[in-house]
Amino acid sequence: MPVRGRLPTIAGVSTLIGRLESWPLLRQLRRSDPCAVGDTAATERTRGLRARIRDAGKPVRSVCPYCAVGCGQKVYVKEGKIADIEGDEDSPISRGRLCPKGAASFQLVTGDHRIRDVLYRPPGGTQWDVLPLEKAMDMVADRVWRTREETWEDTAPNGERVKRTLGLAHLGGATLDNEENYLLKKLYTALGVVQVENQARI
Amino acid sequence: MTAPPNPVPFPGPAELERPTDGREVDPSLGLLQGEGAAQRVRTPEPHPGHLAPTHVEADARTPTYYGLPVLQQPVWIRTIPVYLFVGGMAGAASSLGAASLVAGGPTLERLENRCRALGLAGDLAGSLLLIADLGRPERFLNMLRVFRPTSPMSMGSWILALSGAANTAGFLFGSRRGPLGALGRVGIAAGGGLGALLAGYTGVLLANTAIPLWQAARRELPVLSVGSGMASAGAVLELFSDSGASRKVTHWYGSVGKVVAIGAMLVMQRSAPRAPRVTEPLRTGATGLLWRAGLVLTAAGLVASGLGNKSRARERLAAGLTLAGALATRLAVFHAGKRSARDPRATFEGQRAGMGAAELRRPPDPKPAVFKLPVMR
Amino acid sequence: MTAAKGFFTDTSLCIGCKACEVACKQWNQLPADGLHFTGNSYDNTGHLGASTWRHVAFVEQTLPEALGSIEPQGAGNGSSFGMRWLMESDVCKHCQRAGCLEACPTGAIVRTEFDSVYVQPDVCNGCGYCVVACPFGVIDRRDDDGRAWKCTLCYDRLSDGMTPACAKHCPTESIQFGDVEELRIRAERRLEELQARGVRGAQLYGQDARNQPGTGGLNAFFLLLDRPEVYNLPPDPVVPTAKGRESWTFAGLAAAGMFFTAMAGALLARNRSVR
Amino acid sequence: MAENHPVGFQWVMEARERGATIIHVDPRFTRTSAVADIHVPIRPGTDIAWLGGLIRHVLEEEAYFKEYVLAFTNAPVIVREDFRDTEDLDGLFSGWNAQEGKYHVDSWQYEGAGTIPAAGHKHLPADAGAGADAPDKRPATLQERDETLRHPRCVFQILRRHFSRYTPEMVEQICGVPRALFAKVAETLIRNSRRERTAAFCYAVGWTHHSVGVQYIRTASILQLLLGNMGRPGGGIIALRGHASIQGSTDIPTLFNILPGYLPMPTTKHGGTLAKYIQGNRSPTGWWSEFPKYIVSLLRAWFGDAATKENDYLWGELPRLTGDHSHMTTVADMADGKVPGYFVMGENPAVGSPNAGLQRKGLRNAKWVVVRDLAMIETAEFWKSAPEVQAGEVRPEDIQTEVFFFPAAAHTEKEGTFTNTQRLLQWREKAEEPPGNARSELHFVFHLGRRLIEKARASGKERDLLLRSLVWDYPTQGKLQEPSAEAVLAEINGYTWPDRNPVPGYAELKDDGSTACGCWIYSGCFSGGVNQTARRKPGREQSWVAPEWGWAWPANRRVLYNRASADLEGKPWSERKRLVWWDAAKRRWTGEDVPDIIADRDPAYRAPPGVEGLASIGGNTAFLMQSDGLGWLYAPTGLIDGPLPTHYEPLESVVKNALYGQQCNPTRLEYRRRDNRYHGAYDDPAYPFVLTTFRLTEHHTAGGMSRWLWWLCELQPEMFVEISPELARLRGITHGGWATVSTARGAIEARALVTARLRPLQIQGKTVHTIGVPWHWGTVGRSTGASGNELLALVADPNVSIMESKALTAHILPGRCDRGRHPSTLGPTPSPLEPGDPRRDLPQVGTKRPMPTQEP
Ligand SMILES: Nc1nc2c(c(=O)[nH]1)N[C@H]1C(S)=C(S)[C@@H](COP(=O)(O)OP(=O)(O)OC[C@H]3O[C@@H](n4cnc5c(=O)[nH]c(N)nc54)[C@H](O)[C@@H]3O)O[C@H]1N2
Ligand SMILES: Nc1nc2c(c(=O)[nH]1)N[C@H]1C(S)=C(S)[C@@H](COP(=O)(O)OP(=O)(O)OC[C@H]3O[C@@H](n4cnc5c(=O)[nH]c(N)nc54)[C@H](O)[C@@H]3O)O[C@H]1N2
Ligand code: SF4
Ligand code: SF4
Ligand code: SF4
Ligand code: SF4
Ligand code: SF4
Ligand SMILES: [Mo]
């Protein structure tokens, strides 16, 4: 490449020198490090490498959502996003350890398989549509009310008082919080729904 | 009551099920910042061929792990054997060029010029072939970041770079007068020395690996490299020789090369008598065929160029055979090495037969002074 | 330099849960390697690779001589029915004499203050030489990324005084992290203990230069319950450089030979032409 | 355990390293077997025979812990004269009623005293004789005993007779376990039990998923009581439960038959008054005499001021049970169009529940279904990707179900408590907001409840009274109007009414309406107004019991029945194994753990005969919740299928019952329907192999939480089945190739993993092959495959309606699945019920088995 006519500026030279400065070969020569297998060959990035959760602040204390062992988890949050989930050394149950599922919970909660919208499939539909949350809640409330009205029984066929509906049923609870199960059971019982079940049965 | 369908279609699971990078972090929920986060991933992931259901009957005496390779296969692509071929030829040509300059006198001037050209062309082509093989070709200059004598690749890069520089100087200025000419001639001479190393180091490059076949052939491979380089340089130069003298020189040079190469190959075949498994790729299968082809072609080239008066056609035939032989040999060595890497028994049986650390006369210094551990702050 | 850090992987404690594999992927946020059913027991990973820095091997063995015997093994390998199932979590060995490190032409691979072997992703140009230089088949180049990758010994975590992710999460402490010196002592003691219990085949792999002269010892070493080959480990690995000198010698001789041949040829031609 | 509770297993490994012997009883050689000292390959479904053999061995060798047995168990108690054992009746107990198809349990009772099962009657058949109508309410303190254990009708002697035929030879015949191995295990177990040492049993669904599942656990309890391993450190029977809060969802049950804290749901049998309900469920003696306080506090917590003493705290308005309303029954009803509305929250029955095809048929025949989940799952896409839809047997256009999918907040996106398998409540902090329109269940229920309560207010109908009265005033926070989980937890803990000061624990609850408590066993978790479940004192800074990490129910007690760790005088049986003891100086129980006895009850105190209430609890009471305070070797009440465990074959077996004429559990729950066909009782030529299902460490249950994650999928990428090399050879199946497994319910294809970890057993002169089927796969997700539950049938244990997933029969062929029409898609035409195999029951059992549901 012809450089004639373009006199190297002082700035240019100094950046060149700067470049050369960071040329590990020169460092190698200067330190008479024959093989350059250590620090000589390290880059700035390498020297500054730190755990990415270093600046994440205090971890959020959580519990693994998979199985009933109940291992402690520490959730590191940075910029409002999850940077890392790992075992909680303080837990006398798990002592910081996690199994593959627990270790994968970062992917469980941050994965793009998470669905963000309420989806609706009308009778006979062949695809999902999206519904606004409030509207969907209203629709569900309407359906609960109507089905309850339609299937309410004050008495069983044999005349015993039952005050309930068998037209509504619920399944699920083992993945939910105690508080959630509590409200569910409370609401369903008040609604007269008895067919409330969860994984404990299967 | 039915809800009016919202026009926003939900990205169906079919879409979600399509793999992209095997992490699939939703950027609004999580941060992708780990050490491996920068790994680029193409989709879909190709199937690693060796992971097929296998049912290995446990052989108590010589176990393997489902027959899976113990070593990684060389990730090098085909440019590498071609590079070995080209580099060998260039190195040999440069050497001959330097010798011609130093000792050949005016009769060999044209030869010397051709050697220069071939040497330089080989250096350039070799560099391109090498760069083409890099996973990150844009970072080829990193090869000159450090000087690592433990690494034949590092040494080779420096040799190639310096040889390229020397040969360039030689090519540009070698025929001039004055200080530039002197520089050119120094370049030629240096190029000659470096060329010899260039031709030889490629053997070390292969030998200095964990691949059982290559490691077992660590003495023969450099010799084979040099021989084969001389043979091919000789063949090419002989084709373009204009004078009887230069023809004689190149013929001599090429023939010695061929003899050396054949000799090295014959020795190499027997390099692992205690563990035949190690050299098996040279005997069986496609690599065995290629290897024998290399041997036969080289021998044929020797015979064709060596017998009586030569017609131009026969000369061409001989050169062709020789070049084909050299290329076949390089390809054979390369692919046989790959096969050897794939075969866990080559490693296991070789090492059990004493071809691992056991054959070192002196075990390597666990912390050799030369690798003194620099302290990082 | 701080004390050398490393792993003692005690396979007699491994339950093959693969937490180490996933914890490593999680911490380092490595991509998956795709879905490939191998049929090789429960090992669908196969091998260490560019995006798998921990790999758990599974070996099902029928012990013909133990058939019908119901003697407890003491080490607990459930062999009351003449069968045992060995599991081992494999990783980069962070060798004292590391083939990859010595082979790397760019200086991308360095030895850190923890005596571990680290590949700098900002330097590696993907020449692939480390791949063939590792006697354990550890380091690999990811085709679509173009660079070579392997276990970093969680260099980033160590720099902050944290335990590597795999060791931290291993439920049974099969992976033990610490000062290599201390781990070595622990390993010797463990071996004696197992031998006293009559565990068949227990052996250390690579704990020091005596055990593995070819590599000068491994900073990540193992306690195995059978021969190394069973776990896909080379029985007598050697850092290629240890034999390189010989190769260089021959290269030098050959180069010299070539040069003399060339000189001889040139002289011959000159003499001829002069005459 | 190494497979499914890997992190819990660290403690087992640690014990092993300290010298413990690990015995693993499992049909398959698993990762647990790999590190165990002894692996016992057993034929699926035969553990009662196996454990029964051990019980017999312990009794015959006089190897039981005599002092303990005498002190704490009902071994000396004398049983009624009219009791007959299975030994006498060829596999039946006395009291069988062929008309009703169930037992009347009067004859199982103690001589002289009535009994109420711990925590009352949680199941409907708790009617006549079971104590609900309480023919005999005389307090347990009146029971007759023979301390010499020689009385022919004392429990000890009954036990002996009952298990006398469970010999090692019989064990070998039934379970396929060689005698030498049996002897080895028996010897190891005994050597590691009694005064100075303890042995623990860990189990999970390998023991419960049977039509005799509850009796499996009973058998283990008997053995542990005999060996003195209950209530002692390193002892016990450890249920390794399933999901993160499966224990919580049982304590605060989203279950049909109980209210929070194991209070029974009202049934029509209780009539209309609270008094009658209390009378049927309260035990006069033992801790359960406190029952009224708990139900009244619950009603107060739910209905606030609307619940008054005068209106029976609205108890009369609660819905009643009339039969089995369990999951399987409901789904079968749904398939018949009887259940139009269905909520599924955090469960995936289209993959996880037995007879997956029938589950999906149920969904197809509902009017609307609401699914809440983190990710798309098969239960929400049954109309789209189900196998029968893919096969073109059902068209989405024809499915009239309306489906709502609500995205759920993940565990990091909400606060709340999980209760783990050791009854420990652990509070989770919130890390970030849920994405988009994802919300927590708390949000969903609360706001749905708000809407419904509004409707109830507007309606003014009588039936809406409970809704109108509901205490539903939880504060909400933030932009998303998220209800406060702490406020809910505070209500669960309980407070005084009406000023709502937190109560310190359940001992402070009242039956006069002055306290409210959402779940009495959780009372104390918010004591002092402090969230005790959020305590996180590092384990290494505490004693080995770690009492300051989280909070365990009851009363932060970590080991139940720990009173049994000390002898009659209150001194630890062994210093090595001390846990709680009587501090004579302070006149209090003390120790490492919270003692499981009234804190100041002197060990020497004995309840005077006839006394009731807490005064009936003697200083020797180790099993406080039992009406008689004793460990029950023999269960006079509480179980539907017998006071003692008895070996019955699974509903579908390959052999005849070697012990009794009665082949199967006579009280099992069957669902005889065209879409739920059963195979022959045994020797069904079409289904000659045993099938058992299992989990993989790398996947989670129905896959919603694992089959979307690449990091897990790549570890187990495809559905497979495990078979032995012998079976592979027999059927011409190649390793890694395809195989098709079929039952009358369906057929699936999978890769064959041929492995010596499965071995054929020799049973009664024939070779029995077992097929191992993991069941994690489904049609949605990143790793998809056939679901094992296509193969299973609805059939259940009568006590808890749990499915029989671990032992059934099947067929296997090489090659891919070329299945005919799926049984669950057969048309709606009513068909005669399948008669059932008469070989299952003795003639006197009759055919009148009550079936939870029938096709219309
Ligand atoms: N990795 C992982 N962990 C989990 C889960 C998961 O899906 N994946 N699920 C969680 C849940 S919900 C639960 S309930 C638990 C369940 O935990 P486990 O009960 O351990 O689960 P399974 O693997 O279904 O069954 C256990 C074993 O029972 C054996 N078995 C089958 N039949 C019999 C028999 O008749 N007798 C005996 N002795 N053994 C038999 C099977 O071979 C199997 O190995 O795991 C929890 N943990
Ligand atoms: N053949 C056979 N069948 C079996 C068994 C067996 O051993 N063999 N085991 C049985 C057992 S023990 C069990 S427990 C069942 C399990 O079967 P299921 O409970 O049906 O299976 P999971 O996949 O655990 O379903 C739980 C769902 O909850 C979702 N989830 C997690 N957290 C939340 C949350 O906070 N909110 C909401 N809304 N959703 C959430 C998950 O994404 C997941 O899809 O399977 C049973 N089926
Ligand atoms: S980390 Fe594993 S063992 Fe621990 S709770 Fe989670 S799933 Fe269970
Ligand atoms: S095991 Fe291989 S990759 Fe790891 S340090 Fe040693 S040579 Fe390098
Ligand atoms: S591929 Fe990268 S790390 Fe490996 S030797 Fe080449 S430059 Fe070094
Ligand atoms: S040390 Fe870190 S990088 Fe290496 S295997 Fe363990 S987790 Fe992965
Ligand atoms: S985490 Fe530990 S126990 Fe699990 S596979 Fe890895 S080394 Fe083995
Ligand atoms: Mo479960």
In the sheet with the most strands of chain A, the strands line up as: 1-2-3
Bound molecules: ligand MGD, iron/sulfur cluster, molybdenum atom
pLDDT < 50 runs, ≥5 residues of chain B: 1-9, 369-377
Succession of helices and strands of chain A:
HHHEEEHHEEHEEHE
Based on the model shown, name its key terms.
heterotetramer, B: 377 residues, mainly alpha, Four Helix Bundle (Hemerythrin (Met), subunit A), Formate dehydrogenase/DMSO reductase fold, 2 domains, 12 helices, disordered C terminus, C: 275 residues, alpha+beta, Alpha-Beta Plaits, four-stranded mixed sheet, two-stranded antiparallel sheet, binds ligand MGD, binds iron/sulfur cluster
Structure description:
The complex is a heterotetramer of chains A (202), B (377), C (275) and D (856). With 202 residues, chain A is of the alpha+beta class. Helices cover 33% and strands 22% of the residues of chain A. Chain A has helices spanning 10-21, 24-30, 44-47, 100-103, 105-110, 133-151, 178-191, and strands at 60-63, 72-78, 81-87, 118-121, 129-131, 152-155, 161-171, 193-197. Chain C folds into 2 domains: 5-238, Alpha-Beta Plaits; 245-274. Chain C is built from 7 helices and 10 strands. Chain C has helices at 19-28, 99-103, 129-133, 155-159, 165-169, 180-196, 241-274, and strands at residues 5-10, 54-62, 83-91, 109-111, 117-119, 140-141, 148-149, 175-179, 203-205, 220-224. In chain C, the strands form 4 sheets. In chain C, strands 8-1-10-9 form a 4-stranded mixed beta sheet. Among the domains of chain D are: 247-325 and 424-559, no CATH class; 669-845, Beta Barrel (Barwin-like endoglucanases), CATH 2.40.40. Helix content of chain D is 21%, strand content 13%. Chain D has a 6-stranded mixed beta sheet with strand order 23-25-24-30-22-28. In chain D, strands 9-10-11 form a 3-stranded parallel beta sheet, with no helix packed on it. Classes of the chains: A alpha+beta (202), B mainly alpha (377), C alpha+beta (275), D alpha/beta (856). Strand 4 (118-121) of chain A pairs antiparallel with strand 11 (402-407) of chain D, so a sheet runs across the interface. The complex binds ligand MGD (2 copies), iron/sulfur cluster (SF4) (5 copies) and molybdenum atom (MO).
